[in-house]
Structure formats: structure tokens, C-alpha cells
Amino acid sequence: MQGMTLVPQRMYINPSFIPDSKWHIGIPVLSSNHITLGYSGHAYSQLVRKDGNDSLFVDLQGALDKMGKTNYLTMNAKIDLLSFSFTVGPNKNNFIYFNSSLRISSRFTLPRQGLEFLWKGNAAFLGETIDLKKLNADASVYTEYGISYARKLLDKKLRVGITVKYLNGSANASTDNRGLSIFTDPNNFNITAQADFTARTSGFFNDIDNINPLNIAFSGNHGFAFNIGAHYMIDDKWEVAASANDLGMIFWKDNIKNYDLNDASFTYQGLDLVEFLTQPDSADVFNEFVDTLTSVFDIQENEDSYSTTLSSQIYISGAYNFTDKDRLGLDFYGEIFKTHFEPAVALNYTRKFGTIFHLSGSYMYNARSFANFGFGFALTLGPVQWYLAMDNVLAPIIPQHSQNAHFHSGLNFVVNYKDKGIKDRDGDGIEDKVDNCPDQFGLELYLGCPDTDLDSIPDHVDNCPTEAGPKLNGGCPWGDKDEDGLTDNIDECPEMAGPEENNGCPWGDIDGDGVTDNIDACPEVAGPPENDGCPWGDRDEDGILDNEDSCPDEAGPVENKGCPWGDRDGDGVLDNLDRCPDVPGPADNDGCPYQDSDGDGVIDLEDDCPRTPGPVENKGCPVIEKEEQEVLNTAFENLEFETGSDVIASSSYESLDGLSELLIKKPDYKLQISGHTDDVGSAESNLRLSEKRSKSVSKYLKNKGVNTDKFIVEWFGETQPAYPNDTKEGRSKNRRVEMEVVFE
């Protein structure tokens, strides 16, 4: 019923909802009859079902499975005994509504676990504590006298309202559950119940003959409550509203009967429910059980007055008006009962046919049920108005599948603003005398003038009535002459396209380097794009610009791309001078390590025999043993030739044979054979003779099995005398073939 603005009783939802009527008088008892039924646990069809033979059976377990942890049952009725309303003030800005209503309100919260205990028995809950603190009830009958006031503010965009209600209570039954639990001992199956619980009643009489109707209608049970609400039109399309209702309480003092259990505890051995229901003497068993409970629990009775708070409701809604006739709304509703909050949400659509007929449809989620399709209408024929609203049209058709039903209907006498006698030439629902545009269909927000482009500027003061635009620009949209995406009102260069971050102006290039200032790191000094518009520097001052310098922060020569020469092997010789840059070596060997070709630990530089290993003390050469040296010496000393020839004398054979055996035994030995002569005769003949004699020795040794690779054969003639040739003895010693073991 949210969108049916014809209905005065809509203000029961929100006291700021001012109806379309100037005034109304509700037909007594018929003006508003509102009934709500709801249960969030399960539908009837989920409890009573059909088996395969079409026979009905009670499916308690199936119903329990559908229930929530805490289930909410509500049954309410509100009947208006009398109601009327009217608007006051020159601009119809004030609305007053009075109602007197009979209200019947009952609400219950049922914990599922408690029902499971009754169905399954205590054996299913061994060692468990069943918390029944959510088990509560409240049922009241009272009369409500309310007066409501609503007012339009902020050029009629905002409407606020309040309802103040006096409540006169007739009867009440309620509970105060401070703690209620059941525990089954897993060892002996004993049931222990603990209760801190009060049941209160008011207005229930033991002697029906003594009932006085006046005592019911005007009891001593008094209370007060109020509703508050607000409704705001954001613009001519969007609206929001919120209200809180039944904020109050009733103080009960007539015909009070209270029953208290204060921290009571009782242990019982259990009751077989099936046996109890089937045995013929089950009534006696039950009576004994009740008597036991009464005596053990020590229920205290008193007649102390008490108070109950009303079950309050909150409404929050939003709506979009496609036109003046079509409205789509989303409503959130919540009801508060003690500590329980029960929510509902609905989507509704309303179509208005002038001030005669409103039609509404809705879909609602409520009571944990999704199958709620609503329907409503308001029909005004002359002064008589009939309205009807149902939140679940399926409830009367298939009640067994429904979990809630809301029914609200009534008859009123009304006078709407477009009733006969009111002048409204353009039919917009606004009287001509207050309509600034009486010949154009318009909106109340703009005093009857239209706003075609929906820019919140009425057409008659809008320079561009068909194009939405700001008030600052006379209702016209801002242009974009340079088409850069920024409207001219915020574009600092409306004639030149530019980016938003430069306020619509193109970026400049102060230094003319082709790099625009927004990305130029040096906007006032020319530089290449690859250096963000900055000139290349020379940070290490080595004469090589940073863009060409592989080491811009370390000075280095051009031939090394601006990097300093390194010393990879750390030998103190820079790599550019180091012949062995990856192997450390001394500077005097160009950075290379000295070699030790024969691996004898004596570097070649100091090794007299670099290719033949030998001890350090012998300068890297092998040591010739004394016996070996004697063989060499003997062969040298005994070597003789026939006079004037290269034929070896036979006296030399023995020593040469010993030498050949030594050379074969020592493969590392090389024999240097050097032929020499005196200076008698020509130098040429002497050279030839020294050659022949050297080769003769080589040939002899070869014939003895010595590898010729072992020989170094040389001849020098008379050029290298060992002694002066001026004596016979000297000349004799100069005629010689020297044999020396040498090593590489």
C-alpha cells in the first residue's frame, strides 16, 4: 500500500505520508480492517502430508527440518472504530489525522530445539542442555487513540510526521523468560529442568457473570506510544522514506495474576510420550505429573502491576517514479519482539489512474517464505473510497502452502484535490489558483510547472527545456568547443584541446626539444626524448657523455667505453695491460704467472732445465749421479780417433759402450756431441774433420741402440780452442770431441 497515495490510512505505515485527499471521514468500523497472520517455521503442508496412497499423515520431523533456530508466530488485528483527517494552511502544508482503533496483538517465539525435545524425547539429547530462553509470548487487547501531525518542508520536498497515541489496555497475557533450560543426564536419563520465568495476565476474569463491558472499554490499564516518520523527495524521480512505529508501552494493573518461578530446578525420570498418549489412564498420569511440578517448582502467585512494551516496527523504503503515474518501490520492514527481530523485504509497483483509481502489485520475502505475491487497489467513486491490499494473494487460495497472510481493507468518505468544484485545467492535480503553469501538466514540486529535461529547472525558466543542464548555465548543458572531453565550464582553454590533467589546455614545450613539458624532466633545457627531455651530462667527468658512457658514475677511458680498467684477477696489473687478465701474475711478466713447464716447482725463468723436472738445488735440472758422471768422463777421456781421420780408435769402444748403456737406461738424457780441432791446416778442412768426428761418435752410439733423438751433434772446427794452439800439448787437447748430458 506504500504507493497508493489516495488512501489516508497509508499514514499508519509512516505518519509523514500525506494523502492526496483534502479530508476524509472513515466509515465507522469499516474504514480500516487490518489482519496479519505469519509463522516463520513451516507451512501446514510441510506438517500434514500425503503418503503414496493419498492418505494424510503428520510429518513432525519434516516440519522440524523446515524450521529455523527461533521461529516467530504472529496474529494481529486492527479495526478502526473512528477516523478522520484534514489538511490546513494556505498551501495545504499541514495534515492532521485522528483515529480510534481496537487492536489485538499476539506474538510468540518458539525455539526449534524445544519442539524437537517434545517429539524425539530426552534420549536424543543425552548430555545436552536445551536452551529455551527464546520461548516467549505476548498477547494483548487494547484500544488506541491517536492523533497525527505531518508537515511539508523545504519547498515541499521533505515531509515529517509524528503520531502520539494513548493506549487503554483490556487484556494481556505475557511472559518474562529470564532463563529456561532442560538437561538430560547421559548416565541415568534423568531430566533436569531449570526455570527463571514469569507468566503475567491482566483482564482475565474467573467469574464471567461479573464482567462489566465498561471495565473492558475503559480499564485502569494505561499506556502511551508514538510513531515517527519522514519522507524526502530527492528530485522529481527519486524518493526515500523511513519510520518507526509503536514505540511505547502499556502499564497493566487491573485484574492481575502473575505466576513466578525464581531460579527453580526440578529433576524427573522422564515420560514415555507414546505410552502417555495411548494408555487409558494417561489423564491420571498427567495430573500426577502436574501436581508434582506444582509442588516442586513452588510457583509463586502475585497481583503486582507490570508493564509490557509494544512490538515495534521499522519501515525503510525507496522509490523511483518513472512518471507521475508509475512508481517502483523497494521496502524493508522489520518487527521487534523482545530480543527477536523479524525482517521482511518487498518490491512493489504502483500505477495511478488519476485520482480515481490506483493499482499496485508486490513481491515480498517474509517469514522465511519467498512465495508472497501481493495485490492492491484504491477506487474512488464520488466521495466514496474503497481500498484493498493483500501481501499474499495465494493465502486464501492455497492456505496450506502459505506461511503468512496480510489483509487490509476499508471504506472512506474522501474529498480529493481533483473533485468536482476544484479548477485544474491541465489535470495535473494542482489547483489552478496555486498552479504557476495552469495550462501545462506539471509537478507539485515546481508548483504545477513541467520539467521536460528533468534537470530540476522548470521549463518556463529553463533556456534549454529539452536538454538537461545546470542552473548556472541557465538550464543548458555545457558545451565542449574543442572536443577534448572537458566541458567549457571547467576547460581553461576551451578553444584548444588538451588533457584533463592540464585543465583542458595542450601541453607546451618551453625548451623546444620536442618533449612536451608534462613529460619533460628539464622543461627549460633542451634534451633528447630518451633522456626525458634533459641534456646528457658527464657525471664522472671523464669526457664521455653519460648516454655513451657504460659507467657514467666512474671515470674511464674512451677505449673502455668510459669505464675504468679493471683488474679481474686482482694481481695489480690492469686488464688492459694484463696478458692474463683472469689469472694473477707479476707485473714483470705482463700480469701472467711464471710457468713451470716441467712441474718440478722451479719456474721456467729460474729453471736451467725448464722441460725436464729436477730439484730446486740443482736449478731445476736432474741430478747426474756420480757413477753416471764417471761414465761420461771416461767416454770423453778415452775417445780417440785414428790420426787425421774420423775413425774411432778401438781403444775407445769400451767406454763408448758404457755410455750407450747409460743413455738407453736414462731416456730423459740428451747427449750433446761437439767436435773441435786445432789450427793446423785450413779452417775449412778442420771444420769438416770436426763434423765427421762428431757424426762418427753419433753413428757409433746409434749402432749401439741409442735413439738419435737423444743427440745434439755440433762441430766447430778450430773456432773454440780450449787451450792455446802454440804448444804441442795445447794443440793435442784442442783436438777433441766433447760429450755432455743436457736437458731441455
Structural write-up:
This protein is mainly beta and 744 residues long. It has three domains: 8-415, Porin, CATH 2.40.160; 492-535, no CATH class; 626-742, OmpA-like domain (60s Ribosomal Protein L30, Chain: A). The protein is built from nine helices and 25 strands. The strands form three sheets. The protein has a 20-stranded antiparallel β-sheet that branches. A hairpin with a 2-residue loop joins β20 and β21. α6 packs antiparallel against α7 (653-665). The chain is elongated. The protein starts with 20 loop residues before the first strand and ends with a strand. The model has no long low-confidence stretch (mean pLDDT 85).
In short, what is this structure?
By secondary structure, this protein is mainly beta. The protein is 13% helix and 35% strand.
Query: What structural category arises from helix and sheet content?
Result: mainly beta
Shape: elongated
Strand content: 25-35%
CATH class of the largest domain: Mainly Beta
CA(first)-CA(last) distance? 121 Å
CATH topology of the largest domain, which one? Porin
Sheet with the most strands, sense and barrel status: 20 strands, antiparallel
Query: Rg, please?
Result: 61 Å
The total count of strands amounts to 25
For the record, the count of structural domains works out to 3
Q: With helices defined by DSSP (H or I, 4 residues minimum), what is the helix count?
A: 9
CATH architecture classification of the largest domain: Beta Barrel
Q: Are there runs of 5+ residues with pLDDT below 50, and where?
A: none
Mean pLDDT: 85
Helicity, in percent?
Answer: 10-25%
